[in-house]
Q: What sequence folds into this?
């Protein structure tokens, strides 16, 4: 009789990208450049906010968390992907796999919560402009940021505690990187509690984020159409539209990733592309969008490069 609760190995086998020999170098260059762009853009945004005291305001303190979160997600993914492409190593230690999965999930939930908090900040700024400085103090914003990260760590901590309590009897992963659904496929035990809690975390994050954004944006739209100043209305709508595009991009990629696990007939290459896209496009676009669209940050970045990097 086979003991299905036997923990087969601490070394896991990942599916890999199945690259042909001639496509290994282009794939490695593309992955390296993508990671370098993500690191450069997000670090520039972080340093710009940290090093300029004029940007130590509630809105920018909150924005600072977005590139930090993006770096967490991309750094959890890219070193392992680059190693896999270059060395064609499809093995990974179980503890490293769990660590990667944990931080990837921290990134996903963190991005949703941070964008939700940013929507709330914009709601106060546009709908209650005279009370903004009174409500949105630095200390109040730090409380919001603390709640965002603590709630994220709590939800994901419980998720992975529930995962690690289960015995494994398989060692072949179904994905190119590690996440909770892939790790659950290694388990030969009842995963009902894990599935219920997974759905619970998805429901909590979606109710909080979508509910908050739906309410705040309705209020912002009402306030904009009531405003008699066309320039103020246009600026507010442009800011909110940019934020909404970023949020919808993240939501769509996350939703497609979740659905791809449920569809058995979907192409494995498409599943891998969708999964990796969630960790490439938002971390690349976020600092560019918020760096270029936010006048104060854009001016500080231009000033830094013109005076320090490219002095006349």
A:
């Amino acid at each position: 009789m086979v003991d299905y609760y036997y923990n087969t190995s601490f070394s896991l086998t990942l599916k890999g990208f199945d690259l042909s020999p001639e496509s290994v170098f282009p794939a490695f260059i593309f992955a390296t450049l993508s990671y370098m762009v993500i690191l450069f853009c997000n670090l520039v945004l972080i340093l710009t906010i940290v090093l300029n005291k004029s940007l130590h305001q509630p809105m920018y303190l909150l924005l600072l968390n977005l590139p930090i979160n993006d770096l967490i997600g991309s750094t959890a993914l890219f070193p392992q992907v680059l190693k896999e492409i270059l060395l064609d190593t499809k093995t990974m230690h179980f503890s490293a796999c769990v660590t990667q999965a944990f931080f990837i999930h921290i990134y996903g939930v963190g991005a949703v919560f941070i964008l939700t908090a940013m929507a709330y900040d914009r709601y106060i700024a546009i709908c209650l402009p005279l009370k903004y400085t009174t409500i949105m103090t630095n200390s109040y914003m730090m409380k919001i940021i603390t709640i965002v990260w603590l709630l994220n760590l709590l939800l994901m901590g419980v998720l992975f505690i529930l995962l690690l309590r289960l015995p494994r009897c398989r060692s072949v992963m179904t994905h190119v990187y590690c996440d909770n659904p892939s790790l659950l496929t290694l388990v030969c035990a009842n995963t009902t509690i894990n599935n219920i809690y997974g759905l619970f975390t998805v429901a909590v994050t979606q109710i909080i984020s979508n509910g908050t954004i739906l309410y705040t944006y309705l209020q912002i739209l009402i306030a904009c159409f009531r405003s008699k100043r066309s320039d103020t209305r246009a600026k507010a709508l442009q800011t909110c539209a940019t934020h909404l595009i970023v949020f919808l991009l993240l939501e769509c990629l996350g939703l497609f990733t979740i659905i791809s696990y449920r569809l058995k007939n979907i192409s494995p290459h498409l599943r891998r592309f969708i999964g990796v896209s969630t960790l490439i496009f938002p971390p690349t676009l976020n600092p560019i969008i918020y760096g270029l669209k936010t006048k104060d940050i854009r001016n500080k970045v231009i000033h830094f490069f013109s005076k320090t990097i490219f002095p006349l």
Observations:
- Strands lie at 11-13, 91-93.
- Residues 20-309 form a domain with the Rhopdopsin 7-helix transmembrane proteins fold (CATH 1.20.1070.10).
- The first helix runs from residue 21 to 51.
- The CA atoms of residues 120 and 216 lie 6 Å apart.
